[in-house]
C-alpha cells in the first residue's frame, strides 16, 4: 500500500519561501517517478515539478528559477523548495507518484499554500 503524506504548507508573504515535504511509504521515491502538482481555486490541476528515478528534473515555466524539487533517498522523501513566492502560487499542492512496478498513480492528500500580505 503506497501512501504519500505532504507537509510544510502554510501562509507566507510575497517574496517568502516554503519547503514542502512528501514522505512516502510502501514504495521507494528513488525508484519511481515523483512530481508535485498544484490546483488553485477554479483552475485545473497543473504539473509544477517532476523528478525521475534517474534524477532528471524539470519544471513548469511559471516556477523555473524559483522552485527546486529534490529527494532524500535515506528518508524516502521528496521536497519542493519554493522561493520568491508570488500570490499566483497560492494553491493546494499535491505529491504524485507513478509506480513503475504496479503501473499505478498515487496522490497525497494535498497541502495548502497561501501567498498573501
What report would you give on this structure?
Strands 2, 4, 5, 6, 9, 10 and 11 form a seven-stranded mixed sheet that branches. With 117 residues, the chain is an all-beta fold. The protein is globular and about 45 Å long. Helices cover 0% and strands 53% of the residues. The chain starts with a strand and ends with a strand. A hairpin with a 6-residue loop joins strand 4 and strand 5 (46-51).
- What is the distance, rounded to the nearest whole angstrom, between the alpha carbons of the first and last residues? 40 Å
Principal-axis shape equals: globular
By secondary-structure content and strand pairing, the structural class works out as: mainly beta
N-to-C SSE series? EEEEEEEEEEE
Largest sheet: 7 strands, mixed
Count of extended strands: 11
Rg for CA atoms: 13 Å
Q: What share of the residues lie within helices? A: under 10%
| Number of helical segments with 4 or more residues | 0
Strand content: over 45%
Give average pLDDT, whole number.
Answer: 96
Which regions are unreliable across 5 or more consecutive residues at pLDDT < 50? none
